[in-house]
Design a protein that fits this description.
about 25% strand; about 450 residues; Dna Ligase, domain 1; alpha+beta; D-amino Acid Aminotransferase, Chain A, domain 1; eight-stranded antiparallel β-sheet; Rossmann fold; single chain; 3 domains; five-stranded parallel β-sheet; globular
Length: about 450
Amino acid sequence: MFSKILIANRGEIAVRVIRACKEMGIRTVAIYSEADRASQHVKLADEAICVGGPKSEQSYLNIPAIISAAEITDVDAIHPGYGFLSQNAHFAEICESCNISFIGPSSRSIRLMGDKIAAKDLMRKSGVPIVPGGTAAVKNKDDALNAARKVGYPVIVKAAAGGGGRGMRVCHNDVRLISAVMTCQTEAQASFGNSDVFIEKFVQEPRHIEFQILADRHGHTIHLGERDCTIQRRHQKLIEEAPSPALDPKLRKRMGEVAVKAARAAEYSTVGTVEFLLDKSGAYYFIEMNTRLQVEHPVTEMVTGLDLVKEQIRMAAGEALKLKQDDVKMDGWAIECRINAEDPANNFIPSPGKIEVYHQPGGRGVRVDTHVSTGYQVPPYYDSMLGKLITTGKTRQEAIRVMQRALEEYTIEPIKTTIPLYKQIFSDPTFWRGQISTNYIEKLLGERE
């Protein structure tokens, strides 16, 4: 087992990893930017080292500075958290070359699954159902038009190296398609350093279902059931729950087996997520594999009783997975809301600034993963997420009622947050019935996709 781990991240996920390490008897090193000097993860770690200026590229994306910090503090592993360098194959390779364990999959798996075109092609060859189209990059106008006519409108243009909704556009005709391809190529190059885009059939009003994977380095792979991530805005997840109200035991078993097949095809190890679109007929399609710990991992923890961060660390250290598929049981229901410093009433504009009043909910069935408190200065340089509110219950209805109560208690002032939006959602009969699709938020707010 590792003796010291550097956490190459910030915010609530850095706090989450540090806490898991403390419980495992592992020393921790926090890195921080000049803007995060007083942050909670810096205070909680055994050691802390500044790696650069406030902007991400100066600090949390500054690979030479992070590797130098790891060598100076003599760590034997780096945990990347999520975001930043967590899915950067080059960073994983550098860690490997420096004899520092990367707490994640191999650089090969990251690179393979990070290329959505290559990943879809591998899944197709492995017998995993994929969305029609999308197995080759489009280079020009004729490529785009031919690909769209082959699968039929509507289609979606996606960045091959993309994520987080960037480099994605839905198109219903040729004119829109040509414009979208050029826009997505520009966005993809700016965001990911790769301008390749592909075109696939747009599945209308699907649910977004993902399966949590655990895979050790001895060839043993299992899944921990699904999370329903259907509540999104502009392809950004807002609410996640486990299990999904749309899956019965037979469909869960089938999709879980396919998720495991997908992970094995990628020769995947440690913690990962296989993501699907589920249409109204019950057909499901692989869309991508996230080669890291997900933001929404707590809902799986709450219904399985497992600590995914600890499992991730153990497997990265070479330990064999002790769990078998039959050992995994989902008990009760869990729902998570991402609490973001954004103004839902003003097109979700970011709301940085000082938190002068902070009170988080508690009581039975409530978990809050956060790094903020009264007096915290929300910086303008990073993702706007302040934390995650997770509630549990024996049933979905009970978990929703606990969430309603917790949202009423949650106070963050004077900055704007997404809490009012969640209050609206959790009082909506459509949400209570579970009759939702990925365009639910756009319909609720009267927005156009």
